[in-house]
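User: My collaborator sent over this chain with a note saying "see what the structure looks like." That's all I know about it. Can you take a look?
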Amino acid sequence: MQSADGRRATPVGGVETIALFGPDSGCLLFDQRLLRFAGASELRGQEESDEVLYVLSGSGTASFGSLAEGKAAYVPRGATWRVEDADDLLLLSVLVHDPLTEETDGPVLLDVSDGAAQGATAGRQFRLLATPEVGCTSVTQFVGIIPVVRAPDHFHTYDEVVYVLRGEGALHIDGESAPLRPGSCIHLPARLVHCLENTGPGEMNVLGVFRPAGSPAEAYYPDGTPAVVRTD
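Assistant: Without extra context I'll predict from the sequence alone. Here is the result:
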């Protein structure tokens, strides 16, 4: 786990890139980074990777629509886009390496408020953003809503990168703990037993991207027993 104070790159084409997780840090499936825009940017696009975006703060207009906090986008490999104007616009970008994309269409603009909240373990909820249903076949992107509680130790069968949007808490792995706050980022390899705790006082929100695509509610206890999702 690390904070958002990653490796900064010199601004290029109107964009400052701050690297968080990627192959150099053992995260082979993704590159998680922050993109900071001021004004207009040059044309952007990835020939070999899909990209999922989430607006953390600021505002602007992209070639595929208006950007504001809570908006997201899926950009398939081969598609191009640019920011036409930006007011201190900060995006969380996750590049998806070796994607399953078969056809290249334009970017898809998404809004976290459009989807109904769904239940997960330990009273948690999530809202889906980029999924196979909107053409994003490789990964699932979601916002998780975590109440003030410590979840049981568990693992997932997918590989995931997480970014804390709101709230404070702790990540517990193998008897060790690390604090979480807005801007903390986490890489959770598949089958790593962990626990994410919200210490309050309010709810915690996280932005997750995982592969292979599926449901954020899928989880297993350390003995391999599936975790039970309560809906009452």
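A starting point for your reply to your collaborator: The chain has no helices and 19 strands.
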